[in-house]
Design brief:
Number of helices: 27
Distance between the termini: 20 Å
InterPro entries: Acnase/IPM_dHydase_lsu_aba_1/3, Acoase/IPM_deHydtase_lsu_aba, Aconitase_4Fe-4S_dom, Homoacnase/IPMdehydase_lsu, IPM_dehydratase_rel_enz, IPMI_cat
CATH superfamily of the largest domain: Aconitase, domain 3
Strand order of the largest sheet: 14-13-18-17-15-16
Helix content: 25-40%
CATH class of the largest domain: Alpha Beta
Organism: Gossypium australe
Strand content: 15-25%
Radius of gyration: 31 Å
GO biological process, one term: L-leucine biosynthetic process
Oligomer: single chain
Bound molecules: 3-isopropylmalic acid
CATH topology of the largest domain: Aconitase, domain 3
GO molecular function: 3-isopropylmalate dehydratase activity; 4 iron, 4 sulfur cluster binding; metal ion binding
Shape: elongated
Keywords: 4Fe-4S, Iron, Iron-sulfur, Lyase, Metal-binding
Length: about 900
């Protein structure tokens, strides 16, 4: 029977069932421009075929003379180009001399590029001295590419001088597809625009590279950003990267490669691709990369005679995550003070009073950036209302500003248009005030001003004054901001959009960047330690207590004492086997009162191996005199088994084994469910389980930043008024699925709801712990739940999120309500309320599998509120659902062939 659950039935289902109706008008999309994140791709199977690799993996494999490299591998990489500048060059040279000797020669004088660019047009003696050190070194080493500056009073008198290193590297042909380019600057990632591996390194590494041409690198996993759709004429690459950073946060890509693909990316010119890659470091990215194509080859034509060989990601390459964007829906963005991920729509900032505009830097001081700004000024015909500083990145950009005619201007150059608009005269090319610089740096923010800037960072003090406020924006937005009319002496960042045709949005656009995700806070800095004990998160505190230590910090490995240890029929026999092998056939478990044995997975089946597993648990529990063994002996009638519970995670809670502040481990990944009680709860493997059975202790790495998928090896702490309003079972649902994001554990602070739930369930004294106010969190995500709509995760991944109503055309064959996630009493009450409100019959087989005996009993006895005394079971019967089954994990994970409600045919099912 194939019917469409969410189609016409469901639209009407949403309309007619008042109970389920969304109160407010909500945005049409989950994320207006972010298409659903694709599921993590599974690693391509190795075998006789070579494993698929991403571009980054391939470039590094080739540079390390290896056939194959995977994320996490460490490899010695042969470097094609090493770049250094006036800020880090002297330090790197110092290390090179110290390690290789005063007279040592660099590994290859033609592969080192030295570019003074940061603190150039200043009378600061130490800054000038740095350039002298570079000069001495280049002379001594006969470095082929040294872009020197001698006469600081007139940059034009220095034919060798270029300006901002990242732009100069490209213009001088040092960026080539497939190569490895390293630089002592975090924005070295810019060169990824050329389809190469480019990243910033520290002075110590650079000193080593100077001597050897090699570096030891860990291969990063790759995040893939697919950007499709025609780019609206008011957008620039800066908006794309601000969107991405806003979405994934400043830590979102830590030690990851960011690969940019899609039709939008293909349509970008080289400078725009450079903008995209330039800011990957602002998301923590190791490198950014755009596949080389005809645009790349054309750009390179007159720039290099070095042969290069582009590489591309294999079709079977494994990406950590894939993000898809429909760029046609994007609006101009800014990053508000004081973090590059503090994303907002430009027009949301219309009441921000600004004092100045800055167009420059490796991010926004390229020829295309000035052309973009000039187009806005030209279209407006007006004058800027605030000082507008223009700092070309390089001499070439400066020259372009003075010579290239701006399209549609009747032959005017940028410089003419800027003059007519009342901007400051373009300054000498350098990094300028992007990073503050010495006091006399042109356009440095020496007072606390508010600046709209095309640069890359907006941390406090970045452009000079620590109270300055920097709004990062595209050259369009920056120029438009400069023109915006004063209103009560205030200046809005974005002009009334009708003012500038270039800036006008063609289509109606959604109001929100993200519907439910209102902001994503920047990574919090670790609180300073001192004589004080370090502030800790809940998880850290629980583990510190468990390890009998005053404090622990992320990354520490500590032995923790386990409070409760749970095994079930799937992994219990394996764990028992290991325990016996390691501790001896006659060994006793460390504490018979702390081990909880719960058969729950494959119970109501005639499968012999499944039944045998339960027998093993029974023999073991008897032999060890395990206090909490929830046995099932009569498989034909679960009610005849008073000890039997059902799904372990729910049983653990119902039987009072979940207690605030404790450490609960289990041989099941959903053991994290118990985090709902404000405890540390996580799943472990059989080997560790065997060890825990024998010792009650486990070596754990304190949750820290270990990269990989969304929350891999991270603790997920849930707080906020919405969470406080949830009952215990709902909190359990929340914690239950942290493992689906790769989380190590989930945790909800214990409160009166927790204590009340526990009242009649345990007499064990427990001591809740809470995160310190100053605890350091890896990231903080904020949600306005009032804006959320019902969601589903479509096949075949729990992160394949969609609005339920977006699936209205999906034909479904069945519905399944059950499991440790959605088979609790509250889950059945919720379903019953819906059936009750509708009064209709189900259109597809609807299977109900209570998690435990207690849930089963609740279904048959608890009165559904507002039903005039009906139980869930009555309502389910009236709605035509299947009779509630025996409690167990059942078909949640398939199970033996005869498992109730197992999907034995290819069907589409909605499951809880
Ligand atoms: C000076 C240099 C080390 C620094 C960097 O690496 O990023 C600078 O270029 C910056 O933009 O902050």
């Amino acid at each position: 029977m194939a019917s469409s659950l969410v189609s016409s039935p469901t639209s009407s289902f949403l309309k007619k069932v008042a109970f389920h109706k969304c109160k407010k008008q909500v945005s049409k999309k989950i994320v207006s421009v972010m298409a659903p994140q694709q599921s993590e791709r599974k690693t391509y199977t190795t075998g006789s075929v070579k494993t698929g690799m991403t571009m980054t993996e391939k470039i590094l494999a080739r540079a390390s003379e290896k056939q194959q490299l995977s994320p996490g591998d460490n490899a010695w990489i042969n470097v094609d180009i090493l770049m250094t500048h006036d800020v880090c060059g002297p330090g790197s040279i110092g290390i090179f001399k110290k390690e290789f000797g005063e007279k040592a020669k660099v590994w290859d004088r033609e592969k080192i590029v030295i570019i003074p660019d940061h603190y150039i047009f200043t009378s600061d003696e130490r800054a000038n001295r740095n350039v002298d050190i570079l000069r001495d070194f280049c002379g001594e080493q006969n470095i082929k590419y040294f872009y020197d500056i001698k006469d600081l009073s007139n940059f034009k008198a220095n034919p060798d001088y270029k300006g901002v290193c990242h732009v100069a590297l490209a213009q001088e042909g040092h960026c080539r597809p497939g190569e490895v380019l390293l630089g002592t600057d975090s924005h070295t990632c810019t060169a990824g625009a050329f389809g190469q591996f480019a990243t910033g390194i520290g002075n110590t590494d650079a000193g080593f590279v100077l001597g050897t041409g090699k570096v030891l690198l860990k291969v990063p996993p790759t995040l893939r950003f697919v950007m499709d759709g025609e780019m609206p004429h008011y957008l620039l690459a800066k908006d794309l990267i601000l969107q991405i950073i806003g979405e994934i946060s400043v830590a979102g890509a830590t030690y990851k490669s960011m690969e940019f693909v899609g039709t939008t990316v293909e349509s970008l010119n080289m400078e725009e691709r450079m903008t995209l890659c330039n800011m990957v470091v602002e998301a923590g990215g190791k490198n950014g990369v755009v596949p080389a194509d005809s645009t790349t080859f054309k750009y390179l034509e007159d720039k290099t005679s070095v042969l290069y060989e582009p590489v591309y990601s294999d079709a079977q390459a494994s990406f950590l995550s894939e993000y898809r964007f429909d760029i046609s829906k994007l609006e101009p963005l800014v990053a508000k003070p004081h973090s590059p991920d503090n994303r907002a729509l430009a027009r949301e900032c219309k009441d921000v009073k600004i004092d100045r505009v800055y167009i420059g830097s490796c991010t926004g001081g390229k020829t295309e950036d000035f052309l973009a700004a000039a187009k806005v000024f030209l279209a407006s015909g007006k004058k800027v209302k605030v000082p507008t500083f223009l700092v070309p990145a390089t001499q070439k950009v400066w020259m372009d500003i003075y010579t290239l005619p701006v399209p549609g201007s009747g032959g005017k150059t940028c410089s003419q248009i800027f003059e007519e608009a009342g901007c400051d005269t373009p300054a000498s090319p350098s990094c300028g005030a992007c990073l503050g610089g010495p006091k006399d740096t042109y356009a440095r923010m020496n007072e606390p001003k508010v600046c709209v800037s095309t640069t890359n960072r907006n941390f406090p003090g970045r452009m000079g004054h620590k109270e300055g406020q920097i709004y990062l924006a595209s050259p369009y937005t920056a120029a438009a901001s400069a023109l915006t009319g004063y209103k009560d002496k205030s200046l809005s960042i974005v002009p009334s959009t009708s003012q500038l045709s270039i800036y006008k949005c063609k289509k109606p656009i959604s109001n929100n960047i993200s519907m439910a995700m209102v902001t994503r806070q920047s990574e919090r800095k670790p609180a300073t330690t001192g004589s004080m004990k370090s502030p800790m998160t809940m998880t850290e505190k629980i583990l510190a207590n468990g390890a009998e230590k005053a404090e622990v910090k992320a990354g520490d490995n500590v032995w923790v004492n386990v409070d409760v240890f749970m095994i079930n029929d799937i992994s219990g026999p394996g764990s028992i086997g290991i325990f016996r092998k390691e501790f001896g056939e006659n060994a006793k478990v460390w504490d018979r009162e702390k081990v909880v044995v719960i058969p729950d997975h494959y119970i109501f089946t005639s499968d012999e191996r499944a039944n045998r597993n339960v027998d093993i648990l029974r023999e073991f529990s008897l032999d060890q005199n395990i206090k909490y063994f929830y046995d099932i002996t009569d498989l034909s009638n679960f009610k005849a088994n008073p000890d039997y519970k059902g799904v372990c995670h729910i049983a653990l809670a119902q039987e009072g084994h979940c207690r605030p502040g404790e450490i609960l481990l289990g041989t099941d990944s959903h053991t994290c469910t118990a985090g709902a009680f404000g405890q540390f709860a996580t799943g472990i493997g059989n080997t560790e389980a065997g060890f825990v059975l024998g010792t009650g202790a486990l070596l754990l790495k304190i949750i820290g930043e270990i990269s990989v998928a969304g929350a891999t090896y991270k603790s997920m702490e849930f707080v906020g008024t919405t969470i406080e309003s949830l009952n215990m079972e709902e909190r359990m649902t929340l914690c239950n699925m942290v493992i689906e994001a790769g989380g190590k554990n989930g945790v909800v602070a214990a409160d009166s709801t927790t204590f009340k739930y526990l009242e009649d369930k345990t007499s064990v004294p427990y001591e809740p712990v809470y995160s310190d106010a100053l605890a350091s969190f890896h990231s903080e995500f904020r949600f306005d739940i009032s804006k959320l709509e019902p969601l589903v995760a479509k096949p075949h991944s729990p992160d394949n999120r969609a609005l339920a109503r977006e699936c209205k055309d999906i034909k479904i064959d069945r519905v399944y309500i059950g499991s440790c996630t959605g088979g609790k009493t509250q889950d059945f009450l919720a379903a019953a309320k819906l059936f009750l409100a509708s009064g209709k019959k189900v259109k597809v087989p609807t299977f109900l599998v209570p998690a435990t005996q207690k849930v089963w009993v609740d279904i048959y006895t608890l009165i559904v509120p507002g039903s005039g005394g009906k139980t869930c079971s009555q309502i389910f019967e009236e709605a035509g659902c299947d009779t509630p089954a025996s409690p167990s994990c059942a078909a949640c994970m398939g199970g033996p062939k005869d498992t109730y409600a197992r999907m034995n045919e290819a069907q589409a099912s909605f499951c809880t």
